[in-house]
Amino acid sequence: MKRAKKLYILLGILVAVCAVTFGVSRYQTRQEEIKNSGEVILEVPTDSVESLSWDVDDRSFSFHKETAEEDTDSESIWIYDEDDAFPVDKNKINSLLSCFESLSAAFVIENPEDLGQYGLTDPTCTIDFSDGETSYTVLLGDYSPMDSQRYVSIGDGNVYLVEDDPMEEFDVELSNMLDDDDIPYLEEEGTTTSIRFSGDINYEITYEADSANTYREEDVYFTEQNGRQVPLDSTRVSDYLHEVSFLFPDEYVTYKATDEDLADCGLDNPQLVIEADYNTEDDDGNTVSKTFTISISRDPAELAKAQDDAEKTNSSDTETTSEEEEDAEAEDITAYMRIGDSKIIYRLSGEDYQTLMAGGYNDLRDTEVLPADFADIAQIDISLEGTDYTITSEGDAEERTYFYADEELDIADLQSAMQTLTADSFTDEQPTEKEEIHLTLHLDLEGEPSVEIGLYRYDGSYCLAVVDGTPMCLVQRSYVVDLIEAVNAIVLS
Predict the structure, then answer these.
(1) What are φ and ψ of residue 315, in 5° steps?
(2) Do both 148 and 78 map to the same domain?
(3) Side-chain half-sphere exposure of 179, counting CA atoms within 13 A
(4) Burial class, 379, CB count within 10 angstroms (exposed 0-12 / middle 13-18 / buried 19+)
(5) Element of type H or E holding 440
(6) If residue 333 lies in a helix (H) or strand (E), which one and from where to where?
(7) Residue 317: its pLDDT value, please?
(8) Is pLDDT of 38 > 80?
(9) 358 and 238, same structural domain?
(10) Which of 201, 178, 146 is nearest to 249 (CA)?
């Protein structure tokens, strides 16, 4: 009995050894079937393809090429098979097809027994395309994290690990295939010559280089206020134009808008219309002027409620909305956009909506109380607590030295205090309280202009700034205190 038991044990060991040996042999055989490649496994010129379709997850897409009837050059266009009204972005189609102009494999697995282990019996994506003579089917299987490559079949019986993953292009939504309306680049100085707002905002901005309506060279954008041209903050205007130029709405409501669609989105009577006149070059290199128009509206029901809530808020004392509250509000905004008379209506994010609606005069005007470069100030007349003081200078803007009572000054603290005077909020409210300090700034510019700044007590937190006799804004009282202290440090030393 013991002898038989030992035989059984030895037999079991032998079977196990044989199994392991067979497995190693099979593994080695399999290893021999996986070969380094680097070869190009598919070469199909993009412009030769006549049709393209693919299935990815639960999405299916199908396109074909046709010759545009209205195109005298007989240039081909792509058509969405499900709706020939869909405006197809041919560049996106070309980008998809470019994957197969030179598809290279890092490894080849020859004649695999089980495609399932590579995810190719139920592929992640199936791509079919044809050049009119030859049809191709490409299966995209599992992604190999170890190799950072994807398993691919092209129907020749082999499996490949490809160097460039086609899924990076083909994992799209239909909206990604839409030929979006072009938005010109408006930000570059001198490109945009005029901006007109109508709707909730009504005014015009013009571009003027070397304008006589400002004391600073960097001021190039102006608008009319109270019968005169006044400068805006060039950086803020440029930032606004940047936001317009780089709008990338990733959703559309419809690509064949009807009058009813426009009304449903509030775009039959837009909340805001922005028209930008700009210069560009035509195909011959000649400068031409064009106009870009964008219409914006909040969902009509939302807008009505927001306006009603705003009226209630204005009738009661409430705290200023925090940045966190504004962000939360943006998430709840449903808004729409239309470019020119396009048939495409885009869904606009709440953040983009708020940004575009912040194009009013007070949003884009300069927040600095001092409307000139400090280096151009040749003389400062100061009235403080009933006493007048005068600070003079020698030299020019390149190298100016300041004096008080014939003593050379370190002007740094006074300069900093004056440049710190910025608007917390704008107002046209007339001063009713005591004037804290008054400054007359004589500028070393053509015509020897001067600027008057009066800072008046307003409340415990703010002072009212009046520039050249016109109320401008509220500034933090602490800034005014710093200015007074800087003056006292000079005149009382």
Answers:
(1) -90, 0
(2) yes
(3) 17
(4) middle
(5) strand 435-443
(6) none
(7) 47
(8) no
(9) yes
(10) 178
Residue 416 sits in the same domain as residue 477: yes
310 and 441 share one domain:
no
CA separation, residue 176 to residues 136, 139, 220, 321, 423 (Å): 23, 21, 38, 36, 43
Q: What is the pTM of this model?
A: 0.83
Tens digit of each residue's pLDDT (9 = 90 or more) over 304-318: 998 888 888 765 444
The CA distance from 358 to 240, in Å, is: 8
Question: Which of the two residues, 241 and 19, has the higher pLDDT score?
Answer: 241
Residue 429: predicted pLDDT: 96
234 closest CA partner among 218, 212, 257: 218
- Final residue of a structural domain among 114, 145, 177: 177
- Residue recorded with tokens 């709008």: 247
Both structure tokens of 336: 């729409």
What does the block give as tokens for 65? 């090429």
DSSP letters of 266-307?
TTTS-SEEEEEEEEEE-TTS-EEEEEEEEEEEE-HHHHHHHH
Asked whether residue 313 is assigned to any structural domain, the reply reads yes
Q: How far apart are the first and last CA of the chain?
A: 118
Helix axes 234-245, 350-357, angle to 10 degrees: 140
Single residue among 345, 364, 383 that ends a domain in this structure: 364
Question: Of how many residues is the chain composed?
Answer: 493
Average pLDDT over residues 109-118: 91
Task: Give CA angle at 490 (488, 492), nearest 5°.
Answer: 60
Cα–Cα distance for residue pair 112/289, rounded to 1 Å: 62
What pairs with residue 443 in β-bridges? Answer: 377
82 with 215, same domain?
Answer: no
> Which residue segment(s) compose the domain that 327 sits in?
192-364
Specify whether 360 is located in the same domain as 378.
no
**CA-CA distances (angstroms) from residue 198 to 240, 335, 359, 412?**
16, 17, 11, 44
State how far the Cα of 339 lies from the Cα of 270, in Å rounded to an integer. Answer: 12
Would residue 369 count as lying in a domain? no
If you search the block for the tokens 């592929």, which residue do you land on?
123
Q: How many domains are contained in the chain?
A: 3
Q: pLDDT digit string (tens) for 403-423?
A: 999 999 999 999 999 999 999
- Determine the residue type at 417: A
The residues near 362 (Cβ < 8 Å, ≥ 6 apart) are: 426
d(CA 175, CA 344): 11
Share of the chain above pLDDT 90, in %: 78
